[in-house]
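If it is no trouble, might I ask you for a protein's amino acid sequence along with its backbone structure tokens?
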Amino acid sequence: MIRKITLVALASLAAILSVGCGLTSPFIAHKDFTRPNYETIRIGESKQEVLDMMGQPTTELDETWIYVNAKPYYKALIEFEQGKVTHKRFTIDKCEDLTTASAPAPSTKPAKRRPSKVF
């Protein structure tokens, strides 16, 4: 299982790097690949539901689909397990590695302070 995940991650990274980082891609994403359409994709949806909403992916690697839009530049990675969406990532950075787990966004709320004791 870990070997399969590693192979998928490496294949995804290779595809992303060949498509991104300033290299010209011969692939053109389907016209339905937009940020609003991407946002409607939910964990647990089927491959057919993703196809209906996003169109054909730019690249298919086993259970990983990669969508790339050239201008303006953005890309998405959608991972499946047993034909259902398990993970999805979106970026506008040409060189961001979508295969690594992203850290949670830092909280914008100020930290709670304990009342100071007056002696």
